[in-house]
Amino acid sequence: MINSIKTNFELFLYQRTVRVTFSILMFFSLGVSVFYITGSWGSFTSNLYHPASLSVLGYYTESYWLFSLLFPFLAVLPVGFSLCADQDEKTYPVYGIRIGRKKYYWGKYIAGFLVTVLVFALPLLIQLGINYLSFGWGTAANPSNIAPYSRDLDAVWHRYLFSWLYYNHRGICAVLHIMILSGFAGMAGVFTMAISSFIRHYAILLVLPFYLLVFLLREAGRIWCPEITTDVMDYFYLEISEAKDIRFIIGFFVGMWIISMAAMLVHIHKDYNNVGIR
Question: Which residue, among 23, 124, 126, 125, has the nearest Cα to 78 in the 3D structure?
Answer without folding.
Answer: 23
